[in-house]
## 1
Amino acid sequence: MADTLTLFTSIGLSEQKAKETMKNEALSSALKEAVTQAQRVHGASGVDKAMGTLLYNMASRLKDAKRLAFLADSIVQRKICTELQLAAALDFVKSHPQDPINQKEFEEACGVGVVITPEQIEDAVESVIKKHKEQLLKERYHFNMGLLMGEARSALKWADGKVIKNEVDMQVLHLLGPKTEADLEKKPKVKAKKEEVAVNGENFKTEGYVVTPNTMSLLKKHLDLTGGQIRTRFPPEPNGILHIGHAKAINFNFGYAKANNGICFLRYDDTNPEKEEEKYFTAIKDMVEWLGYKPYAVTHASDNFQQLYDLAVDLIRRGHAYVCHQRGEELKGHNAPPSPWRDRPIEESLVLFERMKKGLFAEGEATLRMKMVMEDGKMDPVAYRIKYTPHHRTGDEWCIYPTYDYTHCLCDSIENITHSLCTKEFQARRSSYYWLCNALDVYCPVQWEYGRLNLTYTVVSKRKIIKLVETGVVRDWDDPRLFTLTALRRRGFPPEAINNFCARVGVTVSQTTTEPHLLESCVRDVLNDTAPRAMAVLEPLKVTITNLPEDSQSDVRVPDFPANEAKGSHMVPFTCTIFIEQSDFREVMEKGYKRLTPEQPVGLRHAGYVISVQKVIKDAQGNVVELEVNCCRSETAEKPKAFIHWVSKPLTCEVRLYERLFLHKHPEDPSEVPNGFLSDINPNSLQVISSALVDTSVKGAKVFDKFQFERVGYFSLDPDSTADKLIFNRTVTLKEDPGKI
């Protein structure tokens, strides 16, 4: 570990950057190999920071690991010397996956050996300024200087950008002279037009979108059918429960459509019958609706099985797909060899695909593969595979099922989706998305990627949650310590708070890792306005008021929302026997303590009484078990330093107090938790109080009803509750624990 850190810092990486790199096993291995290769040529101290930066950028951006040695050698031999050349080199190897690489073509594409003289740069900039001279003199320094830079760089592709900028600055200064006060005034902003692609469905204007001779006619047909309406979809796989990351996807897909007066589909990607269960279909729809969204329609990929099959036949006829007999393990990884069946005759593949459909092959014996190279370097992704598993909707009708890479874009096209909104990891599939639609000459939606939402102190992968359930760490997918949506609902998180949290996090291209306390803050904001108050005592201490008759009872009015009493109130009984929190009494007075002591009275919230200790009663072990007190009306007593909550004739309830499930921020990170996430469980993540006392106002509560227990926290009624015993989950504390931030 130390040797690797030293190796990485020797090429100019900061210690922090080196440690971050080491956390990424694939990147660390690739960079180590590249640097070692460089040091064999230049010696341990001969790899300078400029070369080290190129090696790092190459290792972090290269998708096809088999090209690592080739590109590293080009950098080591100083053929690739600039970031611009590296970008061209990466593009070249991505578009030339087959061996061998033509060295001459590679060097021409990357500008190897091209020398740009200062005179060439001067002449190019002079030519560009001459072209825009009239507008430059008119707008002076408000002119878009980036335009000059761009045109000069286009003329001299391999020139150093900094040198071009310096030359532009110098020649502009020579033409216009120093800046005046008018030049320094800010140019008034012009309000940007709303992005046309969102309004008009002009997908072809989106960066990276592939335009074919049929694009415009297909778009016109699409616009005729949709009237230019924005159409999005939320496409979960029905093989697990939705989590907090899905909440962001739901908000973005449904929210984007709503903001543009469009519609959003809920489409189940049900193409893997082995892992799909009816309970997941139901739970997904429930969670979407719980968050407040109503799908325009609920659809299934399986609705289109016949059409998808027909399109696959068409893809073979067009020469873009073939039946392959390589086994699954032979297809794994980016270094899988090209299929020996890639060039088999079209008619032969058509016959074999028909045989696959009829169940004449064993599982794994044949697949349908598409003739394309994905952005991550993977060749010929699988379109169809054989699975002899009945489908929950189509039964035994099919024994071949389409893959995500084949199904996703075609279902989007069939449903006339305008925007395929997906998380950043699907960016590597964008080119295959466009390729397949264009290969079949069908309408092609546009794909936009955004950064997924991650939370610290949790895991959300299905496999790991199943492990937590199987090992008894949590009870089920809806255990309130998890961050599945069903778990958050059970814990008492309001859907509005989750939506507000997603809005606060926002939609960015970069990955977002957020602390749970930011979500909890959104929860408090909502519950403060919506959860009626009640009084509950978690660790009761009996208090007998000796100057009240034994049979005395009065009703005390408690406002549901003390800050706005117009929102209602409820009545609770007040008798000579009440219960307070053990922590609200101390036998020995301490500095700064403001609640009840033998020398210090305290007020009772809402009751209008102040109590003073007369006698402290203890058990045989010396524990305080009861207090005898006197009470007097608040109006006649000296104002106490504090008011505490209390209960009288209460309900006995169970209360479950939750803390973080994991001890470390990143329980899946081997550098933080070397022994795996199961070794990082917080032993105090759940505390059950079986005999808490709650005032009678909660008696008629329904499952998921929420309350603020005054001075204690926010709580929600758990589904385990019975008529005989209510069970409350603590949703969040009243204030954030500073130690958690």
## 2
Amino acid sequence: MNGQGDLDAVGNIPKPGEAEGDEIDMINDMSGVNDQDGGRMRRTHRRTAYQTQELENFYMENPHPTEEQRYELGQRLNMGVNQVKNWFQNKRNLEKINNDHLENVTLREEHDRLLATQDQLRSAMLRSLCNICGKATNCGDTEYEVQKLMAENANLEREIDQFNSRYLSHPKQRMVSTSEQAPSSSSNPGINATPVLDFSGGTRTSEKETSIFLNLAITALRELITLGEVDCPFWMIDPIVRSKGVSKIYEKYRSSFNNVTKPPGQIVEASRAKGLVPMTCVTLVKTLMDTGKWVNVFAPIVPVASTHKVLSTGSGGTKSGSLQQIQAEFQVISPLVPKRKVTFIRYCKEIRQGLWVVVDVTPTQNPTLLPYGCSKRLPSGLIIDDLSNGYSQVTWIEQAEYNESHIHQLYQPLIGYGIGLGAKRWLATLQRHCESLSTLSSTNLTEISPGLSAKGATEIVKLAQRMTLNYYRGITSPSVDKWQKIQVENVAQNMSFMIRKNVNEPGELTGIVLSASTSVWLPVNQHTLFAFISHLSFRHEWDILTNDTTMEETIQIQKAKRHGNIISLLKIVNNGMLVLQEIWNDASGAMVVYAPVETNSIELVKRGENSDSVKFLPSGFSIVPDGVNGSYHRGNTGGGCLLTFGLQILVGINPTAALIQGTVKSVETLMAHTIVKIKSALDLQT
């Protein structure tokens, strides 16, 4: 068998740490495999080198032995029939995984080659000259497009003046949002002073300030297009280098766009990613320009967002030219990383038919040290090229300026390299969401499981979505939630506790809910750790719910196959308890979220009843690469990872009662014990 590098995210896996030649029979049956020694369950069987060699020799001749041949092999090699059968099953599975992996690598290389060729052709078009006059053809010329945008900006200013003179009592009266009346301000910034948008409250926006915002958006759009070019000189070839090389490139980049210098103590992160998205260009633009839909798609990253002001709704019945002020929070699923509060303007523009740009940028007045939890959004966004087949080619660029001292040392490399909130995570999250929409719309949901209606499958998907959202919020505590952080004496390092008091809220247990979370570093890669935690054969090694028994899967809904995104209804064998679970593993990270659910409630949901009243308390794991030594950029096959464990538990049915400190310490002990069991099972130092 191969080592850890050959592990599959959802298939049968060898126990990490086992050397080659010391192989293990894996149990494919989720309820366990009984050998011939009195029916007692055994998880592993070690074989001698002679047995392994004989099995390999027979496999070369016949990978599918008959029952009689398996019996003869077992007699000859002193092995049980089930041992021989399991060995051949695992061998075939491993060979299939390896073949699929090689095919996937080949296809990715071919895909990257085609993308490079396409980018070369596009660059050649940008530099092409007319054969007759020798002048530039302006085929896709970004400068030409920006000039058109500037002309439209001037037209918009004239329309604003006409609107004010026609409908407002005074031409200098300020415009405010149609959705929210901003408080009056005694300050009167000049035309050249771009207002700083306060996250805690809105500012009034005059017609001149609107024009300033539009000019800023057009400048940011021009910058984004330049950064999206294949041969853009501002991107480093080696993403591992971070100190001297980054500062030189940063200064060169900033001087090119005549921007202000970042203040001391601030860190700038920048990343770029490109990929195919199974969504049309127009649909994607509409999603991005609707904050409700935007939050729904990017829920693991954006827990809350709102459109503070709509400065322009676009022209010609499309979103082209739309300009908005948005307030949002960005999150990394860990108690060690504070939420990133951002206020920015978002502008979208159709450059040509089928080519759109959506750009974000934070307007600021002067370079100042950002307060705790806040950051500046440098020109970031998407260049979207419609491929006319239901897919879009997306180039995603993320840039941010923030104070690194607010972030725990464990997560500084992850954030600084543009991984935690970088372009690759945004793009992978979008791809997973779009693929799940495509899968669920094309799958015959009535064929998923006997007794499960199509409406029931839809409700289970909705219930799993609510479960994962509650799991995120129990760790990061968005500003709109009721979680309150509590201080506990002599608490373990990197452990966080919050409480929420529920009183007759739909879908919530009444009483005091305690949320505990912690993040630790483990010397194992993301795929290996995810495979261990998500595989039912190893569940009893860390999950207290199983109590040394097994779990079996009763329902499986595959949302996004390429991302390993699966929703399952699990059943604990010895007591019949049902557990709802959702998992995925991709470039955005890995997630395993689960919650026990009441049997009668879930049976109603399976028949199509509304799932909003189902009550649960989620727990789970979030896994990301540690960002050290370039492990993330090598595809998570090396280096370590950061594991976040979150747990919610009802500690009292009276929401007005005081929290007992001893209960908190018991939960802390349970969390620490689970982490120790995971380390022990993976043969890691505790």
## 3
Amino acid sequence: MEITSYASSSSRDLASIAAAADSVSSSYPSASSTTMPSSRPVKIIPLQHPSASAPSSSSSSGGGGGLFLRWKSKLKKMTWLDWVETFLPCSRWIRTYKWREYLQIDLLAGLTVGVMLVPQAMSYAKLAGLEPIYGLYSGFVPVFVYAIFGSSRQLAVGPVALVSLLVSNVLGGIVDSSDALYTELAILLALMVGILECIMGLLRLGWIMRFISHSVISGFTTASAIVIGLSQAKYFLGYSIVRSSKIVPLIKSIISGIDGFSWPPFVMGSVILAILLVMKHLGKTRKYLRFLRAAGPLTAVVVGTTFVKIFNPSSISLVGDIPQGLPTFSIPKEFGYVKSLIPTALLITGVAILESVGIAKALAAKNGYELDSNQELFGLGVANVCGAFFSAYPTTGSFSRSAVNHESGAKTGVSGIVTGIIMGCALLFMTPLFEYIPLCALAAIVISAVIGLVDYDEAIFLWRVDKKDFLLWTITFVATLFLGIEIGVLIGVGVSLAFVIHESANPHIAVLGRLPGTTVYRNKEQYPDAYTYNGIVIVRIDAPIYFANISYIKDRLREYELEVDRSTRRGPEVDRVYFVILEMAPVTYVDSSAVQALKDLYHEYTSRDIQLAISNPNRDVLLTLSKSGLVDLIGKDWCFVRVHDAVQVCLQHVQTIKETSKTTADPSPQEKPSLLQRLLRQHGEGLSIPELESGYQGQSISSTETDPQLEPLLSRKS
């Protein structure tokens, strides 16, 4: 059969091969140069070989120089309006604000979130070990600042339960919560978190957190929610319990202090908690009652305060005196503790990226506008930095309040400004009323909020879908519960990265077979009907090839060479593998270690009379292989665009090898002809491509069964 290559102008006839026989007699003939009698040519799509001096697309776009040039070009194109929008994202919605359409909706949403935030802020401050006033401060200045510098139009910023627990956990190990130093360190922590968020936003480092799996976050938040709920039990039980982020000390403390149990706070807290849960459920399940979800915390405070004012129970602890007025400007102090607070600041920053930026992106998608995660991170950082100068502790975006804000129809940051005004009014005029709020009511607000963080549905889903992710969820959950928040997160992240490294070092590799009646090659395990060819192994590598996984890839290739499944094989029957075809379409990157290993593999194959072929490498991979000399070593004629092209060429050589083995009855080493001589001897004896591919070598295939103008497909007889 004649093999017509459209890949290059280097096609030669047998005469030209014979002329070069003295120098290449021990090598395989070129894939584009063998001719055999047939009724039609074999079509081979050209593979474009980039020049060795051509720059790779990755280096021009992803490298350091390329990245700098891209940024430089972008900066040159930016107008003054683009600069304003970059530093003041609020200008985007201010310019297009529809006053008649948006104002009323934003006012209602801001009022709803504000009513929800006032009692929550005091509750979360108590969870953080601070006086309730600092929760109100944290819900005041940061809200205004974020409305200006934040890019999300629906994200509700302020104190949250998880960050409050982190603050309590780390500061409780440094100083007693009753000490003034405790408050100063909480404010300093807000400044540190803000600076870290600003730096990460400006340097566009938010991508680092992508390595933390969602399973880790879900397991961590579920365990944290349980710890938060148990830490609030002291306000229900009426006696103090140890401050800890581990479940065992909390349970021991609860059991050991049972003699101090008091019924009044337990009954009041339980009733208020039941009211909150019912209102929350009705607000979620009934659209016309969704206002109940936001009104729940306020209802809890009103019910508790009213009961205390009427009956004056002595056994129920109250919030007590709260300073009246707005926070004053002050510079954070106690910078000597910065070093010990860095791990917690990093952890809180990570929570901000994973939770706040995540929910901000989701809300942006639902409301039809784009959001830059790094710019969002910068906005959160500025809000924390400014808040630290007005006595706020670390803040971030809230799941529950953001959901309420979105459900209330908030269109722009005006809703955030309205929320800030509500907080300001509460600080100016309502703090005398807060004196009689029962602490068990604030605890009920916290517990009702964190119940939604117990993500058991995610655990059930992971068990059904991916046992590995379920294992990761379980490890993080258990480690956080029993070893503490910081250690739990570190273990979860470490195991997550270990899984990533393991998957990268042990990539998926598939043996491909041809789907009947097509020229498509797919994984044999996924498509059992796909068939392979005798003497040919087609392998697809589904990952970048680099130093960490090249040894695994080589080992698997050796296994595939030995493990031959003859039940679904077609074509000329030979006793071993003569060709290995690497399908490299999924390979996005090849490093120098992998190139050297591939060279070693080629020499190893050559010593066993096996030819290596490459199919469909992308431009950057092919350029790397060309620069390293691997393409020249293998031969450009053994690099193909499609797997099918490689199979057609290899099939012809397999047929030649089979016919040669029949006609040479074990000649002596001195008389053994070269492969080139065997090819010349078999000139005119080759089978047609449909016969080779189908495996029906002893039967003729009529012209009605094959169209000479089409690609060679499987014959109807097969």
